[in-house]
Amino acid sequence: MSDAAALRYQNPDKEKRAVPLDCCGGLNNVDFSKMDLTLIEGLLKLTNFQDSSFCVAVAAIIFNPFFWNVVARWEHRTHSLSKLFGSPYLACYCLGFVIILLNVYRSHSMTVAMKAQAKWEVMDRTDVFYAGAGLMVLGTVLVVSSFLALGFTGTFLGDYFGILMDEKVTGFPFNITENPMYWGSTANYLGLALIGASPVGLVLTAIVAVVYKMAIRFEGPFTELIYQERSQRRKRE
C-alpha cells in the first residue's frame, strides 16, 4: 500500500477536507470554453448532411449489419434458408455473396458521397495522404488475414447455420484485436477519407465505427451462446 493510500485509510476525514472529490473525476475543473474547436467546426462546416449521396451512404452503413444479423438469427431459429437451398453450406454461401454485394454498394455509396462534397485544405497534404495509404494497407491486412483464418463460412456467419468451428481462432490477426474484420474495414474507410482529404469521409467513417461497435455488442453474446449450446449437447451425449 502506498503512503497516500495509507493516509486515506488512517484519516479519511482529513483527506476529505484537503482534497474535495466530485463524481465527474475532476472534470468540473476543466474549462471547456478554452478548448480549440476550430478543426471540428471546419469539419462540420464542410459537411453537407442534407446531401442525398450522404444520406444514401448513411443508410447503407446502417442497413448492412442490421440485415445480416436479422437474417442470420432468423436462420438460426428456423433453418429456413438451409431448407430452401437444401444445405446449410449452400445457404451460407448465398448469404455471404449477398453480404459482399451489400458491402460493395456501401463502399461505392461512400465514395460517391466523398466525391460529391468539398475537400478540406487542412487534410490536403502529402503526410496525410501517406497516413491514409498506410491505414488502407493495415486495414487490408486485417481483413484478408481474418478471412484466411476463419474461412468463408467462419467469416459469413456460418455459426448461425450450424457450421461451427472446432475451436476459437486465437492466432493472427485475432491476437491483435478481437474483431479484425470490422476494424480493418473501418481503417480502410478512414484511409480512403484521408487520401481524398474528405471531411464527409471522416464523418461517414465515424458512423461506420459506431455501427460496427453496436453490431459487435449484438453479435458477440449470441455467438457465444451458440457455442455454449454445442458444448452442452456434447456433454449430454
UniProtKB/TrEMBL annotation:
<feature type="intramembrane region" description="Helical">
    <location>
        <begin position="52"/>
        <end position="72"/>
    </location>
</feature>
<feature type="transmembrane region" description="Helical">
    <location>
        <begin position="189"/>
        <end position="212"/>
    </location>
</feature>
<feature type="topological domain" description="Lumenal">
    <location>
        <begin position="73"/>
        <end position="84"/>
    </location>
</feature>
<dbReference type="GO" id="GO:0031966">
    <property type="term" value="C:mitochondrial membrane"/>
</dbReference>
<dbReference type="GO" id="GO:0032259">
    <property type="term" value="P:methylation"/>
</dbReference>
<feature type="topological domain" description="Cytoplasmic">
    <location>
        <begin position="218"/>
        <end position="237"/>
    </location>
</feature>
<protein>
    <recommendedName>
        <fullName>Phosphatidylethanolamine N-methyltransferase</fullName>
        <ecNumber>2.1.1.17</ecNumber>
        <ecNumber>2.1.1.71</ecNumber>
    </recommendedName>
</protein>
<dbReference type="GO" id="GO:0004608">
    <property type="term" value="F:phosphatidylethanolamine N-methyltransferase activity"/>
</dbReference>
<keyword id="KW-0808">Transferase</keyword>
<dbReference type="Pfam" id="PF04191">
    <property type="entry name" value="PEMT"/>
</dbReference>
<dbReference type="GO" id="GO:0000773">
    <property type="term" value="F:phosphatidyl-N-methylethanolamine N-methyltransferase activity"/>
</dbReference>
<comment type="similarity">
    <text>Belongs to the class VI-like SAM-binding methyltransferase superfamily. PEMT/PEM2 methyltransferase family.</text>
</comment>
<feature type="topological domain" description="Lumenal">
    <location>
        <begin position="154"/>
        <end position="196"/>
    </location>
</feature>
<keyword id="KW-0489">Methyltransferase</keyword>
<feature type="transmembrane region" description="Helical">
    <location>
        <begin position="54"/>
        <end position="74"/>
    </location>
</feature>
<dbReference type="GO" id="GO:0006656">
    <property type="term" value="P:phosphatidylcholine biosynthetic process"/>
</dbReference>
<keyword id="KW-0594">Phospholipid biosynthesis</keyword>
<feature type="topological domain" description="Cytoplasmic">
    <location>
        <begin position="106"/>
        <end position="132"/>
    </location>
</feature>
<feature type="binding site">
    <location>
        <begin position="219"/>
        <end position="220"/>
    </location>
    <ligand>
        <name>S-adenosyl-L-methionine</name>
    </ligand>
</feature>
<comment type="function">
    <text>Catalyzes the three sequential steps of the methylation pathway for the biosynthesis of phosphatidylcholine, a critical and essential component for membrane structure.</text>
</comment>
<keyword id="KW-0949">S-adenosyl-L-methionine</keyword>
<keyword id="KW-0496">Mitochondrion</keyword>
<feature type="transmembrane region" description="Helical">
    <location>
        <begin position="86"/>
        <end position="105"/>
    </location>
</feature>
<keyword id="KW-0443">Lipid metabolism</keyword>
<dbReference type="InterPro" id="IPR007318">
    <property type="entry name" value="Phopholipid_MeTrfase"/>
</dbReference>
<feature type="binding site">
    <location>
        <begin position="137"/>
        <end position="139"/>
    </location>
    <ligand>
        <name>S-adenosyl-L-methionine</name>
    </ligand>
</feature>
<feature type="topological domain" description="Lumenal">
    <location>
        <begin position="1"/>
        <end position="51"/>
    </location>
</feature>
<keyword id="KW-1133">Transmembrane helix</keyword>
<comment type="pathway">
    <text>Phospholipid metabolism; phosphatidylcholine biosynthesis.</text>
</comment>
<comment type="pathway">
    <text>Lipid metabolism.</text>
</comment>
<dbReference type="InterPro" id="IPR024960">
    <property type="entry name" value="PEMT/MFAP"/>
</dbReference>
<keyword id="KW-1208">Phospholipid metabolism</keyword>
<keyword id="KW-0472">Membrane</keyword>
<keyword id="KW-0256">Endoplasmic reticulum</keyword>
<dbReference type="GO" id="GO:0005789">
    <property type="term" value="C:endoplasmic reticulum membrane"/>
</dbReference>
<feature type="transmembrane region" description="Helical">
    <location>
        <begin position="128"/>
        <end position="152"/>
    </location>
</feature>
<keyword id="KW-0444">Lipid biosynthesis</keyword>
<keyword id="KW-0812">Transmembrane</keyword>
